[in-house]
Amino acid sequence: AQSVTQLGSHVSVSEGALVLLRCNYSSSVPPYLFWYVQYPNQGLQLLLKYTSAATLVKGINGFEAEFKKSETSFHLTKPSAHMSDAAEYFCAVSDLSNDYKLSFGAGTTVTVRA
Amino acid sequence: DTAVSQTPKYLVTQMGNDKSIKCEQNLGHDTMYWYKQDSKKFLKIMFSYNNKELIINETVPNRFSPKSPDKAHLNLHINSLELGDSAVYFCASSQETTSTDTQYFGPGTRLTVL
Hints:
By secondary structure, chain A is an all-beta fold. Chain A has no helices and eleven strands. Chain A is globular, with a radius of gyration of 13 Å.
């Protein structure tokens, strides 16, 4: 069975600083990995996804993530935080062993300081 | 032009009541889902339908009954509501059920059981 661990339930960054959200996965077969963002009182929106093509994946709003099989990681980064990046971020994994159902991590709340 | 819409947005009710949440998608997708997000923001899939057929049914009490009158709609009916049913329920849709398909989420329905 696959699972996802997001390290750090809360991350606080200064505006203009690097945003780094950590995600490690566990999967017995090749995984597909996703990052979703949830703004307050809204549904989830896909930021980016890894589908076994390029290991460095670029998403919307300046975010990117790198799939590292040796480290079983899929960390999300953004070079320069903006106030509008304040939200909840979820890493998710799906694979054949679980009929490709999405399994979400516990989420990381990002706050951005002016 | 809301892609995935849910009604109502908020639902407050007494224990023991029966309630329904409606979901509609105008994306022409074949697959729809219901997720439950608990108070700790943990997201878990409940059901999935593909072309009106149930394909995923997680370990959910049988008080929860999804109904798909057509592939653009997936409603969730809950009988005999319990305090533990309080959560945010998200509907989502995707083109297919493949591993890499992006799921599009609705804005959520916040259910409070008193």
